[in-house]
Amino acid sequence: MTLRYFRPDEFACPCCGKNNMDPDFLRQLDAARDWAGVPFRITSACRCAEHNAAVGGESKSRHMAGQAVDIAFTDQAMLGRIIAALLRVGLTSMAASKPKNFIHVDTYKGFWFGLY
Fold first, then answer.
1. What is the mean pLDDT of residues 13-30?
2. Which residue of 44, 45, 52, 76 has the fewest CB atoms within a 10 Å radius of its CB?
3. What is the secondary structure of 4-46 as a DSSP string?
4. Can you tell me the mean pLDDT for 45-58?
């Protein structure tokens, strides 16, 4: 699969290289990035079980299934553009961390928004 804004290595687990990202999810992320008009710097994507445990991830984290990413943001305006773009392409499950400046988005069906 060819993506306009992302390289496959951006989604690989940092400890083992596992990369089982869901192709439909990646297409949605690519479309959201196009719509947002701001860079999406992926800070966490695919995780093996060991890496997920090491970073304190949920035991059933969608990161392990290739259905979640964390995207860095630099300010509130950028965060707003990212959220609007994700919603526009149908990604409605997310949580933002202001202290760590990232937004988590996954493929959970239904609307969910949390704060870290």
1. 97
2. 76
3. SS--GGGGS-TTT------HHHHHHHHHHHHHH-S--EEEE--
4. 97
Residue 1 has what pLDDT?
A: 81
Give the residue carrying structure tokens 């949580």.
Answer: 95
Kind of pairing between the strands at 93-97 and 68-72: unpaired
What single-letter amino acid sits at 81?
Answer: R
Q: Mean per-residue pLDDT for 53-71?
A: 97
Sign of CA dihedral 58, 36, 6, 67: positive
Give the contacts of 33 (CB within 8 A, at least 6 positions apart): 4, 5, 6, 39, 40, 85
Mean pLDDT calculated for residue range 30-42:
98
Q: Is 81 helix (H, G, I), strand (E, B) or coil?
A: helix
Q: Which of 38, 34, 32, 43 is nearest to 10 (CA)?
A: 43
Q: With pLDDT > 90 as the criterion, what percentage of the chain qualifies?
A: 97
How far, in Å, CA of 116 to CA of 107, rounded? 18
